[in-house]
Structure formats: C-alpha cells, structure tokens
Design a protein that fits this description.
259 residues, alpha+beta, FAD/NAD(P)-binding domain, 5-stranded antiparallel beta sheet, 14 strands, 28% helix
Length: 259
C-alpha cells in the first residue's frame, strides 16, 4: 500500500474537525479529515435536542473557562458568532432565538451538519470515515500516521477528536494519549457542562415532576446562573444545571432557588 501525503490531516469529524477542514481547504491546502466512526458529526445531530444550538450571539471570553484566557480573547476577535451566523444564513438555514442570543435551527441539526459537509466539499477537503489511527510519529517536515487504510503523512496534524464526554457516540481518550505522547501537559479530567444525577430517595421524590422546566437561580462556589432547570427521570438538567456543573466538584454544596 503506497503512502498518501497531504498538507493537513485532521483527526475527528465533529464540528471542530469539519470547520478546520473547510477553513484549511479554502486556504489552498490539501486536506484529509479522518474519523473512526461510520458517520460524521454525531454530536452535532444530538445537540440542542436535535435542533442544534449552533451559536450564542452574546458569547464573550468571560463565558470560557481556561488557564489561558488570552487565547479566548484573540480567538473570539478573529471569528465571532456573527461570522458563523452569516455562514448559516448563506446556506438558507432557518433559525430562531430561543433565549437571549441562543440560536437554534428551526427544523433539524442535520442542516448544520450538511452545511459543514457541503463547505468541505466546496473547499476540496476529503472526508474519510471508518479510519482508525494505530500510531502517530514525528518525521522530517511533519507527521506519519499508520491507519487501518494505510500510511498517511502530512505537514500539519490537527487533533480534533474531543474528550470523553459521550462514549456511546464514539468519544474516547485518544486525544489525551496523543497529547501525552508529544509531551503536552494534561490537566485533571472531570465532567463539565453535564446534568446532575440524584440519589434514589430524592430522585423518587421528584419523579412526578419529570419533564417539568422552571426558572431557577443556582449557586455553587461563588458562581450562580439564573436560567431554566429541567427535572428528568435521572436528575436535574437544563441550562442552569449544565452551566453550574463546570464549577461544582464532588462534595461541594449546591443550592437551587426555585422562588
């Protein structure tokens, strides 16, 4: 099997990988986007309850948690929510504002995925699925990948395979392993932007309210969010709980003001 060479290889055909592929393609680079899954953008399809909350017009650097806040500032100045909204509107995707600044597709998340795949096609970026990476090694002027479909080389390698959030959707710790291999520091891993599960007694007590959403003010570690909370069959979800989960650690107290 002959070695295939590209300017850019991107691992991970989710939202970040697709966006990276089309951007590099439009810059005149030869691009290959690979993923071990059988379909691209699985997480896009499930986001926003199947309608994809594709951007927030009120997004600022203050909304991002990072040990390098300056990166968020420069990144958001170079590419704003309006830039992505312009792309969505060029493709004729109808959208609506559910809450202040929160934009969702009117129909289906599939429209956002199809838009990204179409842009990749127009940019000349190749998307190759069912491709597993066995090893990655540094070589002169780039990287070499051994995959189940042969040897690949590239000048620039982008790891866009996400974290461990939803293993059933194909998420793995592959990205962390590659970071360690190349000597990058890995911070302790914990869940963020996730719902809360409850102990059996409290879950049983709230069971009759499953499916009910109401505005709350939730507090934890000197942070608070005043947004809707949703009672589910497993616990507490909704925007307020997802937001505060990034500031909660096991053992911390958390208060929910429903009044």
């Amino acid at each position: 099997m002959t070695t295939q060479n590209y300017d850019v290889i991107i691992i991970g055909a989710g939202a970040a990988g697709l966006m990276c592929a089309l951007t590099a393609g439009y810059r005149g680079r030869s691009v290959l986007l690979i993923d071990h899954a059988n379909k691209p953008g699985k997480k896009i399809l499930m986001s926003g309850g199947g309608r994809c909350n594709f951007t927030n017009l009120n997004s600022t650097p203050a909304n991002f948690l990072s040990d390098n806040p300056h990166y968020c500032i420069s990144a958001l100045k170079r590419y704003t929510p309006q830039h992505f909204l312009d792309l969505v509107e060029r493709h004729g995707i109808e959208h609506e504002e559910k809450a202040a600044g929160q934009l969702f597709c009117k129909e289906s998340s599939k429209e956002i995925l199809n838009m990204l795949l179409t842009e990749c096609e127009w940019a000349g970026a190749e998307v190759r699925l069912k491709t597993s990476v066995k090893t990655i090694s540094g070589v002169d002027h780039g990287y070499q990948l051994q995959t189940n479909s042969g040897t690949l080389t590239c000048e620039s390698l982008v790891i866009a395979c996400g974290g461990l959030s939803i293993p059933t959707m194909g998420a793995t710790g592959f990205g962390y392993d590659i970071a360690k291999q190349f000597g990058l520091a890995i911070l302790p891993i914990r869940a963020g932007l996730v719902p809360f599960t409850l102990h059996p007694e409290l879950k049983e007590q709230l069971a009759p309210l499953s499916g009910v959403s109401c505005p709350v003010d939730v507090h934890c570690n000197n942070e608070h969010f005043r947004e809707p909370m949703l009672v589910t069959h497993r616990g507490l979800s909704g925007p307020s709980m997802l937001q505060i989960s990034s500031f909660w650690h096991p053992g911390d107290s958390l208060s929910v003001n429903m009044l």
